[in-house]
Amino acid sequence: MSQKVFGGQKLAVLIDAENAQASLTPYLLSEIAKYGVASVKRIYGDWTGPQLSGWKDTLLTHSIQPIQQFRYTSGKNATDSAMIIDAMDLLYTGKFNGFCLVSSDSDFTRLAARIRESGLVVYGFGRRQTPKAFVAACDKFVYTEILRAGTEESEVPLEKPVKESLKDEKLRTLLSVAVEDSGDENGWANLGAVGSEINKYSPDFDPRNYGFRKLSDLMKATGMFEFEEREHKNSQAKTVYIRLKNGRY
Questions:
Q1: Structural domains of the chain, ranges and CATH numbers in brackets
Q2: Do residues 218 and 162 lie in contact, with contact meaning Cβ atoms separated by under 8 Å?
Q3: Mind listing the pLDDT tens digit of every residue in the chain (249 residues)?
Q4: Residue 16: closest CA among 31, 1, 28
Q5: How far apart, in whole angstroms, are the C-alpha atoms of residue 118 and residue 50?
Q6: Stated pTM of the model
Q7: Phi, psi for 98 (deg, rounded to 5)
């Protein structure tokens, strides 16, 4: 079975059509490309009804395979069951490093946990109202409202104004603890390691939730940290290190 790794991964992308927006597909796939290659792209729903007609052109454009699931009983979501069964079949092939589950439905909480138990990484994508249990079951969870960030089509929708968010005690504690846990004996921590540490504590953390495209921009804006760029030997590349000012925030 594949080991859990980040970056350069073979990913299975499974989309719950009833809990996703066709218009977000280009941004969704662009986001997924940051984590790996979407080797499988499937979307589940009852394609005999008019409610999913808006997906037709999107599926063709992005080569997403529609999986038909009839509604046999009113009030029962057969789509979820079909998606879960397919996910387990793909899991047992051992061909993937991770899964992308696109839904805001809490019914996929156990599926995410089961995939992680097998050592694979799980990326979740859903709306802000996604139940916390599903969010916590993923290695990383991205709110779809921020996927248009940085484009001309939409501004980043924020839950709080930027200045108010930067004073949030929960955010400041999260950032400071991540730096302290990642730091060396002098308190300096590699910024990349800090980002990984943050996601361990908070799968839905994303600087775009606070109006910043990069983690470094968010951390600079808090005024809590000092930064240092270190050059690599025999290379022009630089690595950013960060530590708490005066050892506290």
A1: 9-146 (3.40.50.1010), 162-247 (3.30.420.610)
A2: no
A3: 444 555 579 999 999 998 899 999 999 999 999 999 999 999 999 888 788 888 988 999 999 999 987 765 554 466 788 899 999 999 999 999 999 999 999 999 999 999 999 999 999 999 999 999 999 999 999 999 999 764 544 444 555 667 778 888 999 999 999 999 999 999 999 999 999 999 999 999 999 998 898 999 999 999 999 999 988 777 777 899 999 997 654
A4: 28
A5: 38
A6: 0.84
A7: -170, 175
